[in-house]
Amino acid sequence: MELALIAAATYHSDAASWAQVIILAITAGVVVWYACETRRLVTQVVHQNEISLRPLVLPEFARAGTRGVFKLKNCGVGCALNVRVSPIPIVVPASGQAERATVELRFSPSYYMAAGEDLEVPLRVWDAGKPTEPSTFDTFFFPHYPGDELRFEILFEDVEGGSYAIPVTIRAGHEREHLPRDVEIGAVRKRQ
Fold first, then answer.
1. Is the distance from CB of 153 to CB of 49 less than 8 angstroms?
2. What number is the average pLDDT over the span 39-45?
3. Backbone phi, then psi, for 141, in 5-degree steps?
4. How many CB atoms lie within 10 A of CB 78?
5. 127-157: string of b/e by CB count within 10 Å (b at 16+)?
6. CA end-to-end span of the chain
7. Model-level pTM?
8. How many other C-beta atoms lie within 10 A of the C-beta of residue 172?
9. Which of 37, 34, 27, 80 is CA-nearest to residue 58?
10. Mean per-residue pLDDT for 54-65?
């Protein structure tokens, strides 16, 4: 009988040990899962916080009487630094020749834009490395005038040195009834 009691006690002790091991393993698994999920959520919150605090510089095409006005507006919460618009090459027939020449639209840069600020950005047409006097291409850039498709980027930095680019495409349109031309603003991408 004594042997039976010892065997029963040993059996209960082994079963209790195994139950304890299983409970501890399940608890460890839950803790590891919880730690991974918490880390993933913290990473997402940090990323969302960065996005919500950075600048977001977008184009605006306005009119002042008969003249087109190009503006940039910082729609983001952060200050935008070193704001610039990439030059736009325009291929045109060279005067009196079968060849084509390239002129370039260049924009004046801005050193900074506060959150919510909008800023008129002057543009000039450059030909053969020199700015031209008022030319027929001064209106080529604006969507409310007929023209070919144009692509450019708005480039800016945040106060922590992050550099961003926003691609902009002004679709082609040559018939007055289809004006203004469509403007497509791409997704913000972080530059290296």
1. no
2. 91
3. -75, -25
4. 21
5. eeeeeeeeeebbebbbbeebbeebebbbbbb
6. 80
7. 0.74
8. 13
9. 80
10. 88
Chain segment 111-120, per-residue pLDDT in tens = 999 999 999 9
pLDDT digits (tens, 9 = 90+) for 134-155: 766 667 788 888 888 999 999 9
- Beta strands per DSSP E along 65-188: 67-74, 80-85, 88-93, 100-107, 110-113, 118-120, 123-127, 130-131, 150-157, 163-170, 183-185
pLDDT at 138: 65
Distances (CA, A) of 82 to 4, 54, 111, 114, 115: 86, 14, 5, 12, 14
Q: CA–CA separation, 159 vs 141, rounded Å?
A: 30
Rounded distance between C-alpha atoms, residue 122 and residue 126, angstroms: 13
d(CA 180, CA 171): 10
